[in-house]
Design brief:
alpha+beta, Jelly Rolls, Immunoglobulin-like, Rossmann fold, 3 domains, nine-stranded mixed sheet, 28 strands, 19% helix
C-alpha cells in the first residue's frame, strides 16, 4: 500500500487541479461488509478491480445482492489549496448508486443516500454529490474515498454516468455533450447512425488526448469501438462526429471518454434506433385463451363482499376517502383506497396499480376533484397480505411451478376485481375508466386493459413482466432471483418456468387491448429496459403513443405524471 501511495504522489503531486478530474474510473472492489474498510490504513491490495459506471453483476460479481465496498485514493496538490479553500472544498460526484450508499473520506462519513439494513431504504435514482471540506484534505498525500454500498436486488453498485472529483465550481471545465436531432435521442430513419459530440474546454490549458467511443447493444454486445485524437484550445469547443454505422432496431448504450495526459472525462448516454421495428414475437401457449377465460370465470364465482370503511381523518369538504376490502380469486382478501368527490355526479375513474413491493396509500390518489380514484394493493403487497405474503425477494417465484396457482394469475384478477368495485359505484361513469401505473404497475395496466373490456384508457410507465427470455438477458434482475430459484429447485426446468411466465407476459396479452394506450419509457432504465417495454408495445393493435425520457432510468421525471393525467383528461373530455 505504501508503494502504491508513493506512485500516486509522484503521478499527481504537481498537477494543476483546474485541469483534472482527480477521480479515476477504476476502483478496488470487494463484496461483504466490514467498517474497517473505510479506513485508509486498511490494505486493499488483494481486492479485485472494477470500473464504476457499470453494475457489478457485469464485472464478475455474478448475481450478487448485498453489501460491497469501493475504494480508491487520490492526491490533492497543495498548490491548489488557496483556491480549494476559497471555493468551499472539493465536490465529489458519484452519479447514481444502486441502491444505498455511505461514502467516507479518510475514514469519516461525508454523505449518504438511502439507509442500510435493518432499516433499509433504497435511493437508486438519486445522483450522489458530496462536498469535501478543505480542512479534511491531506495535502500532497493519498486521500481515501471508500463507498459502502447495499444492493437489495437487480443491478448493483456505482452505476451513474458522472463520476468526478474537482474544486467546487470547476467540475464543468470539460463538457462532453452529444448533439441529437431529436430530444428523445431516437434515430427513426433507416441508414447509418452518426452522433455529433461537442466538447468544450474551459480550462486554462489546451485539451490534448484521445476520445474513445464505445457502443454496446442492450444485450451487452460490443457494436462499435473507435478512438480519435483531439486537440482543443483553451476556451474553445469542437464537434466530432462518431460513426456508429448501420444499426439494427433496438437500444444502445454509449460511452465517450476523453483521456489526456493529465485529465479525463467520461460521459454515458443511450440511443434508440427505430424502436417500433423491434421484433419479439408472441409465444402464447396453446391454452392461453382458455387459461384466462377460466381465471375470469373463477373470479366471477367469488362473492366480492365489498366493504367500505370511511376514513374520517382523511376526508375533506371536497373529498371522501374509504378503505375498501374485497374478496378476489381464491377468496383472497385484498384492499385498496377509494377517493371520490363529495359533490354528487357521475365521474370518470382512475385505477392506480402499484410497483413491485411498493405500498399503495391514500396520498397516492389523484388529487383533482373531477375524477374518482382507486389505489389498489394487489395480493402480497401493502395491506393485502393477510392470505398471501411471500415477501420480497420471492414474490415473483411464488408458485411459479404451477400456472394455476402462480401469484400473478391472482394479481391480475385482483385488478379486475378492482374494476368490479369501481363499476359498482353509482358515482362512476363506467364508460370512462382508466388504468395507470409504473413498473409492475405498468404490467398490471397492460393486463387489466387486455383482460377487462370495461377499461377505456391504459397508461403504463416503464412496464414490467415482458418478454422474459430477453428480459433475463438484458437486466440483472429479475433474472438473478430466478437463477437462485433454479439452484434451490433442481427438479424444475427453465422451460417449465418460461411456460408459466408466458401466460402472464404482457407482450402476449397486448394484442387483446382495444383502447388507446400511452406508454412512457426511461431510456436509461436498467430495471425494465426499453427493449422489454417495446416488446409489448409493438404487439398492440390499437391507437397508441409513447414518450421517451432520454436521461431517465426506472424513475421517470415528475413531469411525466402531469403529461399522463393530461392525456387521460383529454380523452375523458375534461380538457378542451
Amino acid at each position: 500500500m505504501k508503494l502504491l501511495n508513493l506512485l500516486l504522489i509522484l503521478g499527481f503531486l504537481f498537477h494543476d487541479l483546474n485541469s483534472q478530474n482527480l477521480l479515476k474510473f477504476e476502483w478496488k472492489f470487494k463484496t461483504g461488509d466490514e467498517l474497517a474498510w473505510a479506513n485508509s490504513q486498511y490494505d486493499d491490495s488483494q481486492w479485485a478491480s472494477i470500473t464504476a459506471g457499470t453494475n457489478w453483476e457485469t464485472q464478475g460479481a455474478g448475481n450478487y445482492d448485498g453489501f460491497a465496498w469501493y475504494r480508491q485514493s487520490i492526491i490533492v496538490s497543495s498548490k491548489n489549496k488557496k483556491e480549494i479553500q476559497s471555493n468551499g472544498g472539493l465536490i465529489l460526484k458519484l452519479g447514481t448508486i444502486d441502491d444505498a450508499d455511505y461514502t467516507y473520506w479518510n475514514g469519516e462519513l461525508i454523505g449518504k443516500n438511502g439507509e442500510m439494513p435493518p432499516n433499509y431504504q433504497g435511493a437508486y435514482d438519486k445522483p450522489r454529490e458530496y462536498t469535501i471540506p478543505a480542512d479534511k484534505i491531506l495535502w500532497d498525500q493519498a486521500n481515501l474515498i471508500a463507498v459502502r454500498v447495499f444492493d437489495a436486488g437487480g443491478g448493483g453498485g456505482i452505476i451513474g454516468e458522472e463520476l468526478s472529483c474537482n474544486i467546487r465550481g470547476l467540475e464543468q471545465m470539460i463538457a462532453i455533450e452529444p448533439q441529437f436531432g431529436r430530444n428523445d435521442h431516437l434515430f427513426l430513419e433507416k441508414g447509418a447512425v452518426n452522433i455529433p459530440i461537442r466538447i468544450t474546454n474551459q480550462m486554462k490549458t489546451p485539451l490534448k488526448g484521445t476520445l474513445t467511443f464505445k457502443l454496446l447493444s442492450d444485450f451487452g454486445e460490443i457494436v462499435k469501438t473507435t478512438q480519435k485524437p483531439i486537440s482543443i484550445k483553451s476556451g474553445s469547443s469542437a464537434t466530432i462526429t462518431l460513426e456508429a454505422g448501420l444499426l439494427a432496431p433496438g437500444f444502445y448504450n454509449a460511452t465517450v471518454i476523453y483521456s489526456g495526459e493529465n485529465d479525463n472525462k467520461k460521459m454515458d448516454f443511450s440511443i434508440g434506433v427505430r424502436p417500433e421495428e423491434i421484433v419479439s414475437p408472441t409465444d402464447r401457449p396453446d391454452d392461453f385463451d382458455n387459461y384466462w377465460m377460466r381465471a375470469k370465470r373463477e373470479l366471477a364465482a367469488v362473492d366480492p363482499q365489498f366493504n367500505l370503511i370511511r376514513q374520517d381523518s382523511l376526508c375533506t369538504a371536497e373529498k371522501e376517502v374509504y378503505l375498501v376490502e374485497m374478496r378476489s380469486l381464491g377468496n383472497v382478501l385484498v384492499r385498496g383506497w377509494y377517493t371520490k368527490p363529495v359533490k354528487p355526479g357521475k365521474y370518470p375513474a382512475i385505477l392506480h396499480v402499484q410497483g413491485y413491493s411498493s405500498v399503495m396509500i391514500p396520498a397516492y390518489a389523484y388529487q383533482g376533484n373531477d375524477m374518482v380514484s382507486f389505489n389498489l394493493n394487489i395480493r402480497g403487497h401493502g395491506n393485502s397480505r393477510d392470505n398471501i405474503n411471500p415477501g420480497f425477494p420471492g414474490y415473483m417465484q411464488y408458485n411459479v411451478n404451477d400456472k394455476e396457482l402462480y401469484v400473478y394469475r391472482g394479481a391480475y384478477m385482483d385488478c379486475l376485481r378492482a374494476v368490479d368495485f369501481l363499476s359498482s359505484r353509482d358515482c362512476v361513469d363506467t364508460a370512462r375508466i382508466a388504468v395507470e401505473g409504473g413498473s409492475q404497475g405498468g404490467a398490471l395496466s397492460f393486463a387489466t386493459a387486455a383482460l377487462d373490456s370495461r377499461i377505456d384508457l391504459c397508461a403504463p410507465d416503464v412496464p414490467f413482466l415482458s418478454d422474459f427470455k430477453d428480459y433475463f438477458k438484458v437486466a440483472a434482475w429479475p433474472g438473478g432471483e430466478f437463477a437462485n430459484y433454479f439452484k434451490e429447485h433442481p427438479e424444475v426446468t427453465e422451460e417449465e418456468i418460461y411456460k408459466t411466465l408466458s401466460y402472464i407476459d404482457i407482450k402476449n396479452l397486448a394484442p387483446w387491448i382495444k383502447v388507446p394506450v400511452h406508454m412512457s419509457v426511461g431510456l436509461r432504465d436498467a430495471t425494465c429496459p426499453p427493449h422489454i417495454n417495446f416488446a409489448a408495445y409493438n404487439q398492440l393493435q390499437t391507437e397508441k403513443e409513447y414518450k421517451i425520457y432520454p436521461f431517465a432510468g426506472h424513475g421517470l421525471p415528475s413531469e411525466n405524471y402531469e403529461l399522463k393525467m393530461t392525456w387521460i383528461k383529454k380523452h375523458f373530455g375534461l380538457l378542451e
